[in-house]
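[SOLVED] Predicted holo structure with magnesium ion

Edit: marking solved, answer below. Original request kept for reference. I posted the sequence and ligand SMILES and asked for the 3D complex as structure tokens.
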Amino acid sequence: MSAAGTATDVEAVIGLECHVELSTRTKMFCGCRNAFGAPPNSNVCPICLGHPGTMPVPNRTAIEYIVRIGLALDCRIAPDSLFHRKNYFYPDMPKNFQISQYDLPICVDGHLDVQVDGESRRIGITRVHMEEDTGKTSHAGTTGRIAQAEYALEDYNRAGVPLVEVVSEPDIRSPEEARAYLTELRAVLQTLGVSDVRMEEGSLRCDANISVRPVGSVELGTKVEIKNMNSIRSVERALRFERDRQRAALESGEPIAQETRHYDENTGATSSMRSKEFAFDYRYFPEPDLTPLEPEPAWVEEIRAALPELPAARRARFETEYGLSPQQSGVVGGQSDWASFFEDAVALGADAPSVANWTAGDLAALVNESGDGLGASKVTPAHIADLVRLVDDGVLSSAGAKAALAEAFASGEPIEAIVEAKGLRQVSDEGALESVIDEVIAENPGPVQQYLGGKDGAINALVGPVMKKTKGSANPAVVQEILRRRLARP
Amino acid sequence: MPELCDRTGHELASLLRDGTTSPAEVLESCLARTAALDERLHAILTPTVDEARAQAAGAEDRLRSGGASAVAGIPLALKDVLCTSGIRTTAGSKILEPYVPPYDCTAWARLKDAGAVLVGKTNCDEFAMGSSNENSAFGPVHNPWATDLVPGGSSGGSAAAVAAGQAVWALGTDTGGSVRQPAALCGVVGLKPTYGRVSRYGLIAFASSLDHVGTLTRDVRDAATLLSGIAGFDPLDATSLPDPPRDFTEGIDGGVRGLRVGVVEDWLGVEGTQPGVRDAFHAALDRLDGLGAAVEPVKLPHADFALSAYYLIAPAEASSNLARYDGVRYGLRVDGDDVVQMNMRTRGSGFGDEVKRRIMLGTYALSAGYYDAYYGQAQKVRTLVIRDFEQAFAGVDVVVAPTSPTTAFRIGERVDDPLAMYLSDVFTIPADLAGIPAISIPCGLADGLPVGFQVMGALRDEATVLRAAFALEQDLAFDARPPLVAEVAP
Amino acid sequence: MAVPIDVDHVARLARLELTPDERERFGRQLAQILEHAERVGQVAAEDVPPTSHPLPRSNVLRDDEPRDGLTHDQAIANAPATEGGMFRVPRIVEQG
Ligand SMILES: [Mg+2]
Ligand SMILES: [Zn+2]
């Protein structure tokens, strides 16, 4: 039987672990630049290469950033927290241990509210802790697959970059909810200005734990971990696949193995990576080269007071203050760059709902299909403000406005200039239209006869060609009025 | 008239200042001594003659232009666990045999800036793990008092070099007694300051929460002078003391009248304590009494367990600190079919027996299920040892004891019995666990071999330790010289 | 009495290749050392806090200011094997 057939009978229990690279100037424990895309092993020093005798000293700004994140997620900031060493061998880890946190993380017990088809769900945040990133391994050999690789190459530019791990409670009940959670988390992090949150570049990474159980049952099924999902969309797809796979297993009574599974972007499927029977033994112990963190309450309050308006609050404000629909506020209120774009356009005196329409509608569409973010777009708030004004003044038809916006997106030219250059101005001036209309009357004897014969609807068969000849710049209402005058029935 | 290389640092400093001699002369005197004796002592692994001659010339200019520091132009040796930029640093291990650090440890960087002259990197037990210097991958160091005996360890090369006149003074490291015990066995002065007094940056880590940089000198004043040159907060070591730099020779000659001196009487009963050591210790106590000090017994109830706690804490930290030696970024590599095999072969053949034993012991002590019983419990015992000292120092100003239960023993005598070897640190380990300052000075001979007298003080109270040791030293006027030295410099 | 150590498991965790002789010798010596070390268990310390540093300090942090690191050549100068400016290692097989 098809999984979909029983889709309502089981529910997924999902928890997400997100790793966020902070956008500090320097690394977590040394003064090397924290920069993406530099030549291999060019942003390194004895400390982040794990040379004998070197020692870590934590980056104050990174600590401030994680406190910001904790406060934004309504966490409790621990008065006393510790760095631990997580011991395991891997060549991308210069010291063969990762400085991380264990039983005393900086932030605990928070939550994040997300909107899933119109209703709000509260997802618990277990902990937010500070650690360091690893270097990058490239597996070299004939095939690209790790299994057949002949050797590997290590680049340590990323080693020691400040990494924040955000661990959710298993409160997520569907792949759609997981997407909503990640989208909201990314929006929060972006608004806080603590990370580039680019999943493609790995500055936001996510692993998922998922099990399924019959709806209504309370005990948890066998937990499976999924890795290697590099976009919010792939997280959702991977979780869909895995939910259905586990549901099918449940129905056919096959056992579900507790294991780590690897997501394949191309097939959209997950496959077994390594079974957990070799339990890792990380031998955590307090990092003896570092002192405990005891954030001054006053300092924490300073950071709290300086927090920016968070996405949820901003969306609510846009709906009340500007009268936007939830859909519109979702688009222009969620991410901080869209929000400031919207408010800048409104500040230029344009009507807010119309600005929201054009921004959340046509502009969002253009930006999405371009694949690059709003930042890369040539369209400025001024473009949208002008566009809205010209439409309101009847200078642009909506068709003309669409064309103008598309051109502005491509060239970045001012709207006015585009309107003139492309002759998009909507023509209402009768003199200019008379000659065109005469031609159309001459060229369309049929519809003319029908109209004169009393078939009123035939007038449209004449309006059309006029609009065509004027490349849509004519004002249809005016055209019809002139036609009726010209063909006045006796 | 002793040769220049047999003088103290402060004597040489004044001779240099009044132009009686030059840094070059002093250096050549040390180099000549090395040429004459090092074949038999093997104290120096890597001579740095060219660097030394250049540095001596530099010191010459400083002295002429006046205002040179007390260490300018004085020949110094560094234990080979202290990183020196561009100069091979092996930690006495095969695994680092080819390693050339790209940076200087902070202690050497400070002395270098002050015009010190580096004559070489001294032999030591592999990764400072040992009490006899027999664990060096490059062969043992021989004791200048009798070349068939060990010099003690792990800073045996530094102690032997100072005793033999190959350097006027040297830096060593003390994790369980590795400065004080070889000082005692070689008849020189060994000072281990308060934990964090001297930066550990660039000290190749053995056990981070126990590692100290210390000094090996000809007398107590030199110990205070050399310490003044390396002490002080270092932004590269988060655990270094915030105290401002200062001159530790100040008040050193204040005497001991009225000083309350506590004797750990339980320790004198420790089995295996050599009668001659006990006698020399008591004779020194009488001197202190004669100088007006008030000698009284003190108890350190948990000191009995210090050795056990140490042999859990130190190996645990070592197992993690030494994980970075994996054949990837620096040092030895023994190839393998995959990275795990390469790691295991590299470490299997690169590390010596004692290092492997301690790595395994520490890995075991931290592994799942054993942490609480071993590492966790050992850290609690460490707390109790610290409290014992706090109580003792509430009643006395310093605590004294023999430095080592025996004088220098035969090379090979204890290699097959690790536990017996560990017992030679039973009197020095407590001060490392507590992080308190402690010094060992020669207090006489037993069967023709030097005996060390240990003075321990409260945290940060180097001043009182140095004052007590100086008074005793002046009164004892110990002036015996190693036969070997008398032989080449009659 | 010391729990007999699973020498092979520990050696694997610690990435140490041991000869049969070493396996036997270390197993014996470690049991002996552990027996002595286990004496810490005789101390009643339930309510005693652990010490990880003799001198407790906190919040020692650095400013987010770039410091010069190594040139690329310095960075790989000590490397046993490199390729394309990266550290070359034998193939990595998924394992524990
Ligand atoms: Mg993590
Ligand atoms: Zn770095």
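OP edit: The mean pLDDT of chain B is 97. Thanks to everyone who chimed in.
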